[in-house]
Amino acid sequence: MADPALALAVPPRIAMVAGETSGDLLSGLLLDGLLRRWPDLYSYGIGGPMMQQRGFQALYSSERLAVHGYSLEVLLRLHDILQIRKTLRQRLQTERPAVFVGVDAPDFNLGLERDLRASGIKTVHFVCPSIWAWRPERVHKIRAAADHVLCLFPFEPQLLAQHDIAASYVGHPLAQVIPMQPDKLAARQQLGLDIDAPVLAVLPGSRRAEVQYIARPFLQAAALLLQRLPQLQVVLPAVPALFDPLAALVQELGLAGQVRLLRGQSHQALAACDCTLIASGTATLEAALFKRPMVISYRMHPISWRLMRRKQLQPWVGLPNILGGEFVVPELLQEQATPAALADTVEQWLVPESGARVAAVAQRFTALHHSLLRDTATLAAQAIEKLLYV
To answer: Its Enzyme Commission number (predicted)?
Structure first.
């Protein structure tokens, strides 16, 4: 058996796969903790710009795994995704990294982790799939796939333990990144916004198909609000891959000069805004940590929607509502997400009479922030080190 002290001194080779923008962000923070432990760490696999800034060698971009919906849209790109997974699996089984870390993207990662684990490679899944919200049958896939699960929410390790799955609560890394008291004035100055006029942040998502299904009604709702509230300032953060399509949509809808399209800067937009119209996903948790009221919405292909609804276990889809156990903020989904309905619901957050309601939501989100605040990067790195050497 290798000397543990010697093994600890040798930086491990770590393979990782992160899907989409949120997974790239989480992976970047995890790499911070791993690099503090092993400054010469070599990491590679599938990732995005946040990971690459930390020396990660991206064999494929995480954008290749970004799909929208539950079924139909995935099938349209299934061959490409399966080919990527097959190629990566063969490479990792040959090179045999010390550990494989799958970050979110459970449809891609759990199958890959299962195969790697069966071949003797240790596996970690970062972000417990939301088996408490929908698709509870995934617990069997998790048990077969992961030697250890890193959980973002405090109730998840106990839930996994009931199914004989080892897990650690590491807190949510976004709770460290986002300040407990965001500076709205500074954010508005950074973005060149009027500090006194109301600001709406429109966040339609980071996937290509979300431009088709979500961005259009969101921007149409913004157009209605601009008619009702002439002083309203609208900002639209865009990930690099979606900047041009969103710019074209803004132009098509006659909103050039009225909607400020940002290159990234979603956190600045959330810090600056009074309210956000936002697609369901990790971004809703970011908005909650910024203590901002929101209207959560989502639209997808009707077939995907029907399939997803059958798997849903809770009456909410937005993370702030799931974690709060009630409709803390409104949700307008699928057929409900018309431009008029979205505009009406957003406007209720922006009227002067909403002050007490806005303050109550901020108080709820502050309590949520405290519950998620841990040294995630260090705790995650320690859990991986323990798996490797203890």
So the answer is: 2.4.1.182
